Batch of 2 targets.
Target 1
Amino acid sequence: MRVAIIAPLVESVPPALYGGTERVVSVLTEELVRRGHGVTLFASGDSVTSARLVPCAPVALRLAPGVTDYATSTRVELRDVYGRAGEFDLIHNHVDHLAFPFARLTGAPTITTTHGRLDLAEVHRLYRAYPEAPLVSISDNQRTHLPGANWLATVPNGIDLANFQVRSDPGDYLVFLGRISPEKRPDRAIAIARAVGMRLVIAAKIDDVDRAYYEHAIAPLMRDQHTVEFIGEVDERDKDELLGGAYAYLFPIDWPEPFGLTMVEAMATGTPVIASRAGSVPEVVVDGVTGFICDSVPAMVDAIARVPQLDRLACRRHVEQHFSAAAMVDGYERVYARSVAGGPLPVEHDTLVAVS
């Protein structure tokens, strides 16, 4: 099948450091190519791929000096994609609603994977304006916020398992990984580490929009806690070592998380996840098997002592079964085939997620 993949331009594919969506796009692209599909990737020029790359910005926009308006570059990217729509059997969109007007006006077969949050009123208004847009969710919970949308399936994100080595023995520190932001609740992670007297390593990026939150709410907590180490963003190799050497991974979120790729990455190294019961978490973590799903910070503190009960190899097996590149692309190939044929099944009979 001839597939065009539209990647966000904020990070390269794959990203050098932080970047969940772009990392998933990379894994998807490489596995599709490996299976013999003709894939054209529209992405930043510093992307690395075995597909045919169409550079839509010289470098990832977050690294480009003076670039603050990401949407403008993305609209130019979409012009390039849909100007060549006749070359493809299917366009797979990963830049959310920005592609909807182009798809409607050209009639090009397009599916959109919704990588972001869908619970906000302005998001509901926009999606209602394009009710025909075929959508793929990355968790069942994500699509509950838009129950009337044109959902084709749920396809959970996958990772490249070769990037993560399982460790059978736990380390002696806790990890918080991702973004410093209010909804990710790094303050809770610090409170948990403080309560159990364990070292906490925070490996995270700080976006400009979250800079004030970091400086006023998080930095003082880290200064006051000598057991907290902030190391900033990490690349894929350092992430593997950091997660694999940990006692447990903390995911104390306070928002409807659409997926939570870092939970999968932690489990791939054998490290259990201690997470808040929110969003996709119950679909990703098996409570009492690959981690603990908790309803409060005190419950997360109590869960720390129960981590030795868990089998780290079971964490890895869970990822291999449900969140590998192969599992993800199996799901997308089914969606692609039915979309091109024009006959997708009703969503209630076509949920591809299967977490035991």
Target 2
Amino acid sequence: MPWLAGTALLHSLAASDKRQLFSSWTLLLAIFAFSLSLLGTFLVRSGVLTSVHAFASDPSRGYFILAFLGVVVGSSLTLFALRAPTTPSSGYRFLSREMFILLNSCLMAIILAIVCLGTLYPLLADALEWGKISVGPPYFNRFFLPLMGVVLLLLPAGISLQWNDNHEAKPLLLWLRKPVAVAAITSPLMLLALSIPFSALALLGAWLGLWVISGTLADLVHKLRNARSPWQGLRSLRASYWGMCLAHVGLAMSALGIVFTSLASEQRDIRLAPDDMAEVAGYRFHFREMQERMGPNYSARHAVFYVQAPDGALRDMQPEKRRYMASGQVMTEAAIWPGFSRDIYISLGEPLEPERGAQSAWSVRLHVKPAVRWIWLGSILMAVGAVVSVCDRRYRHRNIQAA
């Protein structure tokens, strides 16, 4: 939730910096972003929320964070109510960058409200004894994904517009037709290259991600059209512009990774004994042997797998089942074969009773997940984009002394 509010805040700040627009809305988003970070701290530290992310349960600490949250939200909203009417603002045209930034902020606010409702309403219903309510992935997927698709759809059009410039729709559509065509041609080729099964959702997700990337590159080429040389043109661009490009491409990469991983991942839970073989998504898994080994503070059952990719590449993978001596806790250490286009995971389950005349077998989980690395690559690009934007000279304050 703070990420969504912060994203809307960054875009609204750009409009406030350039055109003195949305000043009150920007202040409200700043209050929400900080308040939601405190709310997240309260949820994971107090034990109110039962989740793998709730790594601590301390009611006394939770009371303190809740009281601090109440003081921050109450005082901030009080000051906002008193001072918001005095903040400067100006008008904007309909078909301009300001309008698309406003649409982006509104969409982010709607997504934020949906996530906040799905997170807090079950807790509220339980506290008021209305009954237990379970909100899971279907709720968030049904509402979050279509709205984020609209954000991706509007993004290239927004960056192609100028500030306070009432463009006509026809020239804008003509300018955007090349990115549309490039995305339409390359999206099925990407699915073929990654061996993603063709479907309407896969094609739409690939097109949206490539549409953002091609639209960003088209805007970069457009900005270099009057430069004496490409190198001079690239050097003349501000750091904030480079940061924007990196962040938008990173968002597209993460979106592509999420779509491909969600739609094309294959998982198989299977019973395997040494010398058995299994196949998932064209990858052959050969269970060679099970070994015992001692670690520095644990004993482990150590499996040896030979994995053959569809292109003939071979990899030795060694998942483990560890028992730590100090606590007696049993942990599973998955084996990972990382790759740019896909990741392979093997994890051991529990030992199974051997069939008559057969060797002892294990429950094994095999995963083939395409484009998982793209999600993290996109996150890294967004973070790098933020750092590059901060390095823009316009954001450096200098004390100029009179001569």
